[in-house]
Amino acid sequence: MTTNAQPRTQWLGRWGFILAATGSAVGLGNIWKFPYITGEFGGGAFVLVYLACILAVGVPVMMTEIALGRRGRGSPVDALRRVIAESGRGSAWSLLGWMAMLCGFLILSFYVVVAGWSFAYLWKMLSGGLAGSSVDEMAAIFGANNASPLNLGFWSTLVTVATMVIVGKGVQAGIEKSVSWMMPGMVLMLLLLIGYGVFSGGFPAAVDFLFSFDAGRLSSEGMLAALGHAFFTLSLASGAILTYGSYLPATTSIARTTLSVALADTVVALMAGLAIFPVIFANGMSPSSGPGLIFMSLPLAFQAIPMGTLFGILFFVMLSMAALTSSISMVEATVSWLCDNKGLSRRSASWGTGLVLWLVSTLAMLSFNVGADWTLYGKHFFDWLDYLTSRWMMPLGGLGMVMLAGFVLKSESFREELGLSPGWHALWLFMVRYVSPLGILMIFVDALGITRV
Ligand code: PFF
Ligand code: NA
Fold first, then answer.
1. Which PANTHER family does the annotation name (predicted)?
2. What pTM did the predictor assign?
3. What ipTM, to 2 d.p.?
4. Cβ of 189 less than 6 Å from ligand 1
5. How many domains is the chain partitioned into structurally?
């Protein structure tokens, strides 16, 4: 157990936590993944299920995580250990803290590769490296970018270094300061892009695609993807939100804060859809082109329209910022744990973490070139990282945390931290005891292949 001689750092400004947690939530998940999985799973019906998952699973889990972080005032490992000890329960539950910390780290080791794509594409937009006249030519550019380990490694290393520089400066001077200008900047750019989308001619088609509910297109596969994405998009069970919660002042309302973050994340995902699909539809392209949607179809679409390069640059600047404000949150748990337990300075803790991260992410990056056939059960290393974290570690961690909060820990702890009226508290308890666990169990059923034919 650490000695808590010094009080824990807290967010400096009134908006510190909201900006940082929204920065963590809003990322590649919203702008890269949400539009393409919405495209794959058929639009409006998927969006509706996704919204239900955010409300039924995402919000209760996020409230629980912030409460655990603030109550325990530490990294996931330390915070959980304290809260569990306070309730006099067995330490096996502390494994949840270790798993969350590891999960954030593992997500980052493949996230920096995708974020690296974004930086590489920003550079290509600026230097005219994206000239191509068909989807095939764009696919060739994407392929060439991945084929060279030196090139791909350069961009993911750049993201790793940028992340570690920010985190190394500390919670207030690094994380809080950087999100306080990157987040407003990002939203401004997104608004400009939507404005552009409105005039591109494809806007009505995009609105129709995102919001018209066609129950016939609802698949069980789509529902499970929506549930898994709810965890990823809100940064849950990865130590990020819990650790940011450990810096939350005692008087801030956890429920209100959670609702703002979840709402902002959802609005940005929908806004990203409204910025991307009009351009896609205006060019008569398909919305269901998969992970390459924003790296192949979109740059091609930008080329075909007036001032497309300018808006293309804006798009990749925005995407890169969104990725960075997320990546810093994924290592904060580890860095905070190292500082509190190993007596390291912020700076050494982040460079140490960054070095290990760099080794793992290099292996992930090699999956796209020299390591393409280093596979195990048909998946290469990059896919394994994604699969293990989003299919197993996040749902399992989320399940553990709601069970811990709902059935194991003293209920006074949560009554005090959440400070809700009796009616709202009862609703939260019902959600964490029954609704969220059942939703999460559905993911496991799918991962085990029980629903597959
Ligand atoms: N929420 C981020 C996104 O949507 O891109 C991803 C993420 C961030 C996952 C932080 C996990 C995490 F700890
Ligand atoms: Na997100």
1. TRANSPORTER
2. 0.93
3. 0.99
4. no
5. 1
